[in-house]
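Q: What would this complex look like in 3D?
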Amino acid sequence: ETPKQAEPAEASTPAPATPAPVTTLQTPKSARDDAKSVASARSGKSQPRSGRSVGSGGNKSQRSDKSPKKSPSKKKAAAVHTPATPASQAEPSPEGCVPIFLPEPTQKIVGLAVPEGEEPPQSPMHFVPKQVIMDDIQNRAAVSEFKEHLKTLNEIETEDILLVADPDWKYGANFLMVVTEEARAEMLAEHTGEEEKEEEHVVLGYVPPQPRDWIPQGSDREIREASVSNSRPQFRLTYQRRRRDFGAPVSLADRNVVDAAPSKLVKNQFIDVQALEDANRSTTDIPITEKDQDVQVAPSSDSAAVQTFWGNPKNAFTQYEARQLSQAEREAQLELPELIEAGRRTAPLFEQSLQQNEIMNCFYDDYTNLGGDGILFSKTDNTFKEFQTFTDLEHSREKAVSHIAWHPTLKGIVAVSTRERYDFDGMVDHSAKIVLKTSVIVVWSFADPIQPQLFLEAPEDVLCFEFCPSDPNIIVGGCINGQIVLWDLSQHMDRLKSTKAKGRSKKVSNMLTEFVKTDSIPTIRYAAASSIELGHQAPVTDIMWVPDHFEIQKVTGYALEAKELKNVQIISCATDETIYIWDLRSAKSNNPVFKREEDRCPMGVPDTFWHLHLKWKPFLSVNLFKSEPGGNHNPVKVSMKEMQGDRSVLTKEDPEGKDPTSTNRGDFTMPGGPKPTKQRMLQKVSTFLYVGTEDGELVYVDWMPQKDQDTGKSQTPKPVFYSTMHDSSIKHLSRSSFDRSLVLCVGGWLWTLWKEGVNSGPILYSQKSPKPLTGGCWSPTRPSVFFITRADGSVEVWDLLDKTHEPVLVQNISANALTYCTVWNISHKRQLLIVGDTQGTAHAHKVPFTLHTPMAGEAPSIEAYYKREIQRRAFVMGRWDYREHEKIELEAKAKREAGIAPAVELTPEERLLKMQKKYEAYLAEEMTFLRELGLKDDDDEPLPAVE
Amino acid sequence: AEVEETFKRILSHKGVIGAIIVSYDGIPIRSSFAENDVTVQYCALIQQLAQKAKSAVRDLDPGNDLTFLRIRSKKNEIMVAPSPDYLLLVVQEPNDQP
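A: Here is my prediction, written as structure tokens for the whole assembly.
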């Protein structure tokens, strides 16, 4: 039974005040009842109507003694145990009702007994069918309690009898039988009302839980631990101050403890707060006692499926065709009245417009034909603006810039060569020092003005060098010792290209990295140097590539068509009185490249030209014989008419000539390369060279050798002419890119302008400049403009269309003498002039807008100007001849006048000669006279001459 | 015949490269261009342009209508005269010098 007992205790919240389950009832019904009674006991209220509740507290011990079988229901128990006391106080039963005691068996028979496990009906009213009672009387006869009431029962007319339970034995029995109609109605009315009231009472009867004693289960300790309580009574402090001290003036000042007077009063005014240092406890020693940590579990795998519609791929296309009318339809359309009407109406409009256009060209654009000069000229933009300066402290300082060249394809790459500034004697004096120095060409990029990109190592100082136009990786240079040197940059091309890109990106990045960066600058050794014995014997002063569209034939010097279109020949000149022509495809190089171990080229040097190294020799030499005895001309500069890239000669030569497009870098190691089967002779190529000499002469010479009459040897003919306009060495000699026959020659204190074909003299020459001129160059964009550098560090700009008597602009660029200048056209908006000075610095300057933008109609005007100058030249020549004659005549006349007493007596021979001349003149006159008269025939024998 | 005469007269003007009569659907009816593709291109493109121009003029003022369209280009001038059912098109090249 124990679990049964425990059950109700568990169901209802254990109430400490109530003694643990006392009931021994077994049925769930009684258990529930018991719980109910327990609950009511706990709430301290007794149900006023239920008698069992009243006595439950006291009855408990008695009830527990009873056997469970004996008291199946509460009702029974109440009925059994309570009658004694209230019986004496029984009230008279209400009218129309008869109290009746119904024992349990009877209750069962009439159906009043509540079956086990069921709640006793709330209402005390029980309707029992009359027949049941009648049957009971019949069946049990005298035993039936209803027997004595048979008479009254018979009087009842209703079908059922109302029995009202009277558990309190109020009327002396446990039931009250209603017999009359009135009583029945009354009872029903009363009880239904009571019933409703009772239901209400049940709803309201829920009592809120009452406070109970609290049983500590451990949480009190937690609360106590979490709460803060005073461990000691709180301090109470009172600060006091005299009333008069409030608001009194105070003076504050800094004071030191040490300085303070040692009186106790002062000392007490200081509170020294020392920093607390607890050596035992540092913050790191405190252990971590608490830690926040989170763990979340996520599914490690997931399966999903997607299904798509698969369409069968198909090739499909749609093509439209323009709609067309058939011929018949067209003709039919043309006859339609609408069309005729439309034509009639619109034709005048067309005629009007067409005539308008015929009268005036509406497409004439005034703006394009507007003169560009003067309008865009502003004061701010007519000087050179410094752009960048390149100088290498190690290699170029204290040396003079000898040559500057722009990379032909990569923008912003410029190579600068330098030379010692000593003259010949100085070189000898300082030879020990010079030998120790390495000579290099410094390659710069505009992206990095601080660090050079490459060094090209040379055996000696380089005086001149040129990039190969068809293969910019190759550079040829002329050294001061007479050697021609070749470099191959192909291995380092990436560096030049990448630095360009790197420099661009660096501009946005931190400037500091530019200086921090210390990757070594590669030094490129020359790939080959020419033979010392067979080459020039003096400093090589000028070098140039033969344009790629022709090549010069060996021995004969003919210009042959070059089918491969690559630059393989070089013209160089040196002060050893020779001009040499070299070929990269040396015929003497057919010996194996690596024949001997010592011949193997050094590490890191491309073997492109190694077969030429120290064996290379010129295949043709041009000598500059002077017309008169006294040695030969000493060339320093050379210029030829044919220009790289200008292939018009090829097409001129051969109208049906094929398009020269194929350009491939040939293999230089192959001797002779793939020789074209037949090379055309290019007759139109001018084989004449303008040569500037050390003595300031300009020599015009044909490089093609001719057979000398005297010796039978094939050698360069004598120059066509030479002129000595310049008073010192020629510094610059170049042809205009617009008119290749125009030659600018700079040297000494003046410049001269020559036109090929006009040999009598320059078509224009400047007055003597205050300073020696050191270099020059043509503007690549304006045919009338050229730049001249001076020894005082200034640049002169000449615009022949503006002024011919003085430069349009003189601007000082460097404190040192300038040595070289060249112009590069970066874009149609920007042009850079780069000049070198004697300190080894290359100055890049922006050319002002007006000086690089061609004016409208500039080319025709300058051409006309040159034409006028040529005519003037011819006229001058004519006048000179005339004056010469005049002078001779005048002299003769003066002589004749003075003939009475001639200063010099004529010798007899002279007199005879004179007389003979006179006689011949007479004969000629007579002859013409006779011929005019028709007396003399042409085929007649002339008169015998007088001996 | 009358249309043909007008057509010839227009063609006889100085600088006229060609003329086309186009139906309003853009189908060439009479063309002086030798190449068919040129004719078709002119028809298709100019007809659309003319229609666009016409609708623009009409949108601006419903009472207005396009009568003539001149397109000046760098190389030549295209003149278009739209009528309800047809489109006349003339291409003229200007004189070289004024």
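A: To summarize the key features: Chain B has a mean pLDDT of 87. The longest helix of chain B spans residues 36-60.
Q: Very helpful, thank you.
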